[in-house]
Amino acid sequence: MTENKKQMLLGLGFTGAYGANAKAWKSEGVNSNTYPDIKADIRYAQLAEKGKFQFLFVGDFPGAVPDDNSHVPSMTLEPIITSTTILQQTKHIGVASTVHTQWNFPYTVARQFKGIDLMSGGRIAWNAVTGSSPKVAEHLGVNLMDSKSRYENHYEFVEFILK
Ligand SMILES: Cc1cc2nc3c(=O)[nH]c(=O)nc-3n(C[C@H](O)[C@H](O)[C@H](O)COP(=O)(O)O)c2cc1C
């Protein structure tokens, strides 16, 4: 009989201050002061590393949420800063960091990831997304690209970085 050596790889999503559940911050025992708190992120990352997680996923939504408690604040800290800080405070775990291709410059992104790659011993990955939120475009003071232009731009952007 052949031995089944399949292994599951675990990743932890850093997409919200209190997890994916929008009401989680109301749970008993949750410290609502951990938003936005890089020290809490570092603690979670170190715990995930200890628990043999393979990677963390750092999402990004560069648009403010209403200040009326109708939304749980999430993805508030800039992902390159968050990822770099976490990588300096961990030893083995990988970090997949989100950067939108629609709202950044390829050369800047290439420099950032190359630097973090060297600094972390190859533990950074890029979640390359187009970005499609009119709210974010509004915050950045630019027009949202139409879908076709987004993907043409995305393809060229990623190709440039891979070279
Ligand atoms: C795996 C995955 C992760 C994503 N992460 C983010 C994210 O962190 N932030 C974000 O604004 N959009 C994220 N997106 C959404 C993309 O930016 C984009 O809005 C979505 O893929 C639809 O794009 P389109 O309308 O250009 O087809 C993610 C999409 C995928 C598939």
Question: Which residue ranges are poorly predicted, with pLDDT under 50 across at least 5 consecutive positions?
Answer: none
Q: What hetero molecules are in the model?
A: flavin mononucleotide
The overall pLDDT average reads 90
Radius of gyration: 18 Å
Q: What letter string, H or E per element, gives the SSE order?
A: EHEHEHEHH
CATH architecture: Alpha-Beta Barrel
Shape: globular
**Which percent range fits the helix content?**
25-40%
CATH superfamily, by name, is Luciferase-like domain
Question: Main β-sheet: number of strands, strand sense, barrel status?
Answer: 4 strands, parallel
What is the number of E strands? 4
**What structural category characterises the helix and strand content?**
alpha/beta
Order of strands in the sheet with most strands: 1-2-3-4
Number of domains: 1
Explain what this protein looks like in three dimensions.
By secondary structure, the protein is an alpha/beta fold. 37% of the residues lie in helices and 13% in strands. A 4-stranded parallel β-sheet has the order 1-2-3-4, covered by helices on one side. It is globular, with a radius of gyration of 18 Å. It starts with 10 loop residues before the first strand and ends with a helix.
List strands and helices in order, with pairings.
Layout (H helix, E strand, L loop, with lengths): L10 E4 L23 H13 L4 E4 L20 H10 L5 E7 L5 H15 L3 E6 L4 H7 L6 H16 L1
Helix pairs in contact: 2-3, 3-5
